[in-house]
Each structure stands twice: as C-alpha cells, then as structure tokens.
Specification:
Layout (H helix, E strand, L loop, with lengths): L1 E2 L2 E2 L3 E3 L6 E4 L10 E4 L2 H9 L6 H18 L3 H12 L6 H14 L4 H39 L7 E5 L16 H8 L4 E6 L6 H13 L3 E4 L4 H6 L5 E4 L3 E3 L4 E4 L2 H11 L3 E4 L5 E2 L5 H4 L8 H4 E5 L5 E5 L12 E4 L6 E4 L2 E3 L3 H7 L8
Parallel strand pairs: 6-7, 6-9, 7-8, 9-12, 10-13, 12-17
Antiparallel strand pairs: 1-2, 3-4, 4-5, 10-11, 11-16, 14-15, 17-18
The structure holds 5-S-methyl-1-O-phosphono-5-thio-D-ribulose.
C-alpha cells in the first residue's frame, strides 16, 4: 500500500544492499522508520518485541530469517537451532510455525551448497503468495459488502467494525480484514469503518487508523467498549476481523477482545466475518479454547500506554497505581458458532469442519 507517493510492502529485500528491511511498527503512526534485520537475534527480537506483528507478517519475517541464516551457515544443526529460536518468539499465530516448516521441509533434503539460494527464493515466494492470498480475500469479501450496500439507501455507507490491526501492516500487503474494504473503495461502494482502539497495545488506534487515514477511508476510532452500543443502535452493518489461528472446525483465535465483539454481534444479528488466509488454519487442532496456546505478554503493556507528547517525542506513561500488576492475555478464542463466515482466498465458507473441508479438501483430515 502507499505511504505518501511510494508503494511499500511491510517487509522487502533492499535491491542495493540485499538486506531484509521492515517498517518498525513500534513507532507508527508518529514516526515512519525503516530498519534492516541482519542477525538471527535481530529477526527474533523483531517478532518477539513486535517491530513486526500480525500473523502473516510474522510468518514472512521468519521465512526471511531462515534464508539469512542459510547464507551464514547452511548446516542441519543451524537450521534446527534457528527453527527452534524463531518458533519460540510468539506462541499463538500459527503462521510462524507454518512458515518455519515450509522452509525446513524444503531445505532439509537439499545439499548444503544449494540451501542459501533455495531459501532466499522460497522466502520471496512466501511473501508474494501472501500478497495474492490477501488480494483474493478482498475479491471475495467485496461481494459481502456489495450485498449489504445493495440493501442500503443510495450513497449510504456500509458500516464495518474491525478489531486490532489486520491491515496491510499485519501482512505483506493488502491486509486480510482490510482487503475487502480496499476493494469496496475501488469499486465505488461507500464504506465507513469503526476502528476498535484495541487495548492494551492499541494496534487499532496506532496502525489501523493510520492505514485508513493514508488511504482516505472514512473511519472513527472508538474505545473497545463501544462496539456493543453501536450495534444495538444499528450503526454496524458487519464486523470483519483477522485471525492468528483458526482450528479445523472453525474456532477463531484473534486479538484479545474479539470474542466480546462476536458475542455482541450475535446478540444484535450483526454478521461477524473472519478474514482467513489458509496458512492461518491449524488443521491439527479442533477445540480452540482447549488447545490453542494463548500468549501472555508483559503486564507493563497494560499499566503503561505509549503516545506522543506535546513536544513531539514518543513516550510511555503509567496509567495505574504503583504496585498494581497488569494481567495481559494477548488473544482469545471465538467459538465457530458465533462466526457468520470465513473469507478465504478460495472463497467464503461456514465456520465448520465441513465448510473448511469443502474449500480445502486436500488438507481436511490432516493431523
Ligand atoms: O499481537 P498482534 O498485533 O500480532 O496481533 C495481531 C492480530 O491479532 C491480527 O488480528 C491477526 O494477526 C490477523 S493479521 C492479518
């Protein structure tokens, strides 16, 4: 997507230096900083400390990390060590393990002399595939928005609520939840987006709002507690969120607070859609609540908030009393029964084992 006049992906290889570069998301929207990732520790820190975040982008970053490691030392031992270290950085988004497995399964059978080149090529392909996957999610999701728009008065916007940032910054490009929005705008359908701020890290306020602003999409930033009220008053036509891991039977794990939005949507008859690239499906897991590991992050993310001070510097401020500990589960699980549909790159399906198996027959039944 464009930043100013320039098209950016969220991760790329610099043509001149050959180095992997990312947008360091810790500073947005206040500062736009691009940094190089060079060592294995750089990549691991970038994922763990959320310089990059969002399930698909975490996977793409891990793929590039393996490619860089193979240039340095293409041995089996190094491949396994890198796999372990990177896989331990964040536990919930399955795209991380998916990308690491893709890389290791490709590289293991190859002679060491061929690994660096093959790894580099596959990392670039994973990024390109992510872009195309998200574009197709937009193509399919657009049809849902088009149907809702057709039931509204001419010119009246379709009101879409989204949670966290499942935008282009969370992927390589397009975003998952935002791709249908971009496609709707291109198709001339008026939309308006309710952007949940998404405490504690405020990905909605910092990142989704920045994306909406940059693309000129009408939106309002709302506190996380406002969604239910807006739904009760008919101000939300649909919800679209992303996901970090969706089980084979359609339970959806996503940023903490997603479940509460799904409950409110269900109670108010508001359709609740999940934008789901296929690498985010964990075919080995059925019951999301029992089986998906939920990342527990530092309590300081709850007791402190980052923002820009009057003098322009970006800083943390404490919002709770000294000594009060923060509790910080980073994700929750929305049971499949609360999900209206899954928007995948192959089309839209019911959130159920049958629905997913219908779109991905080659993967159904995997363990
Ligand atoms: O903790 P984050 O910012 O990595 O969480 C991101 C989300 O929860 C997104 O909704 C999810 O990864 C889908 S991104 C297309």
């Amino acid at each position: 997507m464009k930043v100013g006049d320039k098209h950016y992906r969220s991760i790329w290889v610099n043509d001149e230096t050959g180095r992997v570069q990312i947008i360091d998301q810790r500073w947005l929207p206040h500062e736009f900083r691009v940094v190089d990732l060079v060592t294995r520790a750089d990549f691991a820190d970038a994922i763990r400390d959320m310089w990059v975040r969002g399930a698909p982008l975490i996977g793409a970053t891990a793929a590039h990390a393996i490619a860089e490691e193979m240039k340095r030392d293409p041995s089996d031992a190094n491949l396994d060590e890198a796999w372990e270290e990177l896989n331990a950085t964040r536990p919930t988004a399955i795209n991380l393990r998916w990308a690491l497995d893709e890389m290791r399964n490709l590289l293991r059978p190859l002679p060491e002399s061929e690994r660096a080149e093959a790894a580099h090529r596959r990392a670039l392909e994973i990024c390109d595939e992510d872009v195309e996957t998200n574009r197709m999610i937009g193509v399919h999701g657009l049809e849902i928005i088009r149907e809702i728009a057709a039931r509204k008065k001419p010119g009246e916007p379709v009101n879409i609520l989204t949670h966290c940032n499942a935008g282009w910054l969370a992927t390589v490009d397009w975003g998952t939840a935002t791709s249908p929005m971009y496609h709707a705008v291109e198709a001339g359908i008026p939309i308006h987006v309710w952007v949940d701020e998404t405490r504690p890290r405020n990905q909605g306020a910092l990142l989704t709002a920045w994306e909406m602003n940059s693309h000129g999409i009408p939106h309002h930033l709302i506190v996380d507690n406002a969604g239910g009220h807006l739904m009760q008053h008919g101000a939300v036509d649909m919800v679209i969120v992303g996901t970090d891991r969706t089980t084979a039977r359609g339970d959806v794990c996503n940023k903490i607070g997603t479940y509460l939005k799904a409950l409110a949507a269900h109670d108010n008859g508001v359709p609740f859609y999940v934008a789901l690239p296929s690498p985010t499906i964990d075919w080995t897991v059925q019951d999301g609540i029992a089986e998906i590991p939920i990342e527990e992050r530092d309590g300081r993310e709850v007791t402190h908030v980052q923002g820009r001070l009057a003098d322009g510097t970006v800083s943390d401020v404490q919002i709770s009393p000294d000594g009060t500990p923060g509790g910080n589960p980073a994700f929750d699980v929305t049971p499949a029964r609360l999900v209206t549909g899954l928007i995948t790159e192959r089309g839209i399906c019911e959130a159920s084992a049958e629905g997913l198996a219908g779109l991905f027959p080659e993967r159904a039944g995997a363990s």
